[in-house]
Amino acid sequence: MQGVSTQAAAFALGLRAGYSVAAFVLFATALGFGAIARDAGFTLGQAAFLSLTMFALPNQVVLIDQLARGATVAGAAMAVTLAAVRLFPMVAATMPTLRGSKRRPVLEVLAAHFVAITTWIEGARRLPSVARELRLAHHLGIGVAVCGMMVLGSLTGFLLTGSVPGPVSAALVFTTPLYFILSLVISSQSRMDVAAVVLGCGLAPLLYLIVPGFDLLAAGLIGGTLAYLWGASAR
Amino acid sequence: MSVMQDGFGGYLTLLIAGVLANECWRWLGVAVGGRLDLDGQPFLWVRAVALALVAGLVSRMILFPAGALANVPLAIRLGAFAGGIALYFLARRNLAAGVVGGAALLMAAQMLLG
Fold first, then answer.
1. B30 and B42 housed in the same domain
2. DSSP code of A211?
3. For A112-129, how does the pLDDT look when each residue is reduced to its tens digit (9 = 90+)?
4. pTM (2 decimals)?
5. Which residues constitute the domain of residue B50?
6. ipTM
């Protein structure tokens, strides 16, 4: 890690995150996303477009799920934006650690696009060894590598699922809920977090039967609010 | 089957319902970066809602799947899901073991039992 002294070298060091365990798991999950997108009737280009421009797999799956089940554009946008709010504190916490002495607004917006759980894990692991002025370049390298892996995974999953036997296709799709639930387990830090996960899991299937189309929104709002209130009362 | 137009209209829908709805939070994060108390009550609530929503997505994908997963019997889906979580913990909290192991269990169970 030592000896990185130029912006280009810091960027190149970041690119190595493309070979990490986290990037490999993301690739496997992106395979599932590609398969889900194809199953739901989206095109190869649309699957790649979403991975490149959204770069947040759970939110991408929420979008595809909502549109495939006939939600309106406004309804789908509501569900996506509720799932995406968690990006806000993550970006707000990350940006100050990336800023050098001079502000570079365009690069900062690009850097924010690459903020997601995987780049967060990789960044936290490597960032302390990178000089302050080089961190933005380093983070951009991580982002390009990890986002590239995700687009590649989405394309591969989309193409594979049309040409492999059913059980293999099902296994590809299955990586996505597994990755999401394990990410939730990993990032759950408090009783409130655990309650939110348990309530969300329990409520969504019930609400799906009662108010299909609004089930995710309702599960998030009701389950999240109950968990929050319970957490607040326990503090 | 196709739910989306492939042309401009389809991408416009994805841009509005997906990209903008998603990316606006990252832009807001850049704008306020560091000037907010990120441990405050509003953020706790937001975190709980987002966690519950994604957790809900997971349980619905398992219980009411669409596409390829819909052809797999419920018992196998539930068993492989629990198996993947167990493998994650058995492998000392190894993410790859849980994700790849769970998917392999699903595939093996279909071939043996299906």
1. no
2. S
3. 999 987 776 666 666 777
4. 0.86
5. 37-64
6. 0.89
